[in-house]
Amino acid sequence: MNRDQNSTSVTRQIVTEQQFREGVMPRAQLSKLACEIALGKTANADVKEFAGWELMEANTVIDVLQDLGTALSTMDTAAAAFIEQLKGLSGKDFDKQYMAAELSNHEYLRDFARNYLDNAEGKPTGKDKETWHVAGLALFAFTEHVGLCEKIIAAAN
User: Fold this and answer.
1) How many domains does the chain have?
2) DSSP-derived 3-state class of residue 108
3) Residue 98 and residue 146: Cα distance in Å, rounded?
4) What gap in Å lies between CA 29 and CA 55, rounded to an integer?
5) Which Gene3D superfamilies does the record cross-reference, listed alphabetically (predicted)?
6) H helices present in the chain, as ranges
């Protein structure tokens, strides 16, 4: 969840179901790793609670995407550097960086899911229909997590 990965700007274009699944997978995997670190590092009850919920979400998204035939992604150098950066932080610095990354990631994913759903050419069928429904549920979760992140960040300031 580095700066490039966290860009909240999603270009409005038609995204195929495969592109959607392959776009979400690496972000879910990275979030899973970040949550596992957060659960071990943070002393902030709100951050810990969010990390627990987010870990459930990431695990579920990864499992569902794999069931739909999406391969796990290889972590790129920017993602690995972000994870190492998180590991080196502690206290409020950790909480601030972790929550800012989760907020940015969920803003991107919310916009990506909305773009996929809004720009599909009709309601899909077959396997595409499964991804369509996953995207609809994910849009809800991504939107909710944006709100949760914003509240936790505001309360910490």
Assistant:
1) 1
2) helix
3) 13
4) 10
5) 1.20.1260.10
6) 17-41, 45-67, 77-88, 91-118, 126-156
